Amino acid sequence: MPGKRDKELEQEVLNWISGCLGEPLPPGELEDVLKDGVILCNLINKLAPGSVKKIQAKGTNFQLMENIQRFQAGAKKYGLPQEEIFQTADLFERRNIPQVVLSLYSLGRITQKHPEWTGPTLGPKMADKNERTFTEDQLRASEGHLNLQMGYNKGASQAGHGGMGNTRHM
Predict the structure, then answer these.
(1) Which residues form the Calponin-homology (CH) domain (predicted)?
(2) Is 68 helix (H, G, I), strand (E, B) or coil?
(3) What is the pLDDT of residue 1?
(4) Sequence-distant (≥ 6) Cβ neighbours of residue 31 within 8 angstroms
(5) What span, in angstroms and rounded, lies between the C-alpha atoms of 105 and 67?
(6) Domain assignment present for 57
(7) How far, in Å, CA of 47 to CA of 117, rounded?
(8) For 33, 40, 144, 161, which has the most beta carbons within 10 A of its beta carbon?
């Protein structure tokens, strides 16, 4: 099973989901509570109303897995980067619960970028753009410096090298 599970983090995520939905979650392990995808669909609908049109409360494994996929699509639209979204099997088949927790934690952080969301958020405050403005003089001040990091090679050149692929004769 990839990754080690962090029970505290799992509890933090469950508390956050419960806070967002405004109701307690059923007791149990994270993967059991979220497995059918219903709570996840309700969560993404709470964050971004109308994300998931149809939620299967009961049904075959396939129908329940569709809930998870609808949640994933909604989360992606909400701004969760593709590489942070867990795979359906990570949750449904318990392949990688830490990845599921990480996804939900990231989603909790992304709520901070949505001013319309007034509910609870997760994790440290996300950085806003940090724009700096320099005067023309400040920008020009650096032009006179020879920066050794950028290509100044003290007179060394490729002269006498003899082209690509040849050995260098010393």
Answers:
(1) 7-112
(2) helix
(3) 47
(4) 91, 94, 97, 100
(5) 19
(6) yes
(7) 7
(8) 40
Side-chain-side CA neighbours of 141 within 13 Å: the count stands at 5
DSSP codes, 89-138: HHHHT-S-HHHHHHHHHHHHHHGGG-TT--S---SSPPPPP------HHH
Burial of 109 (0-12, 13-18, 19+ CB in 10 A): middle
Q: Angle formed by the axes of helices 38-47 and 7-21, to 10°? A: 60
Structural domain contains residue 161? no
Taking 50 as the threshold, does the pLDDT of residue 44 lie above it?
yes
Sign for the CA dihedral angle at 3, 7, 8, 14 comes to positive
Task: Give the chain's domain count.
Answer: 1
Amino acid letter, 168: R
pLDDT tens for 132-144 read 677 777 767 766 6
Report the pLDDT value the prediction gives residue 142, as an integer from 0 to 100. 64
8 φ, ψ (degrees, to nearest 5): -65, -45
User: What's the pLDDT tens digit per position in 27-43?
Assistant: 999 999 999 999 999 99
- Structural domain containing residue 101: 7-113
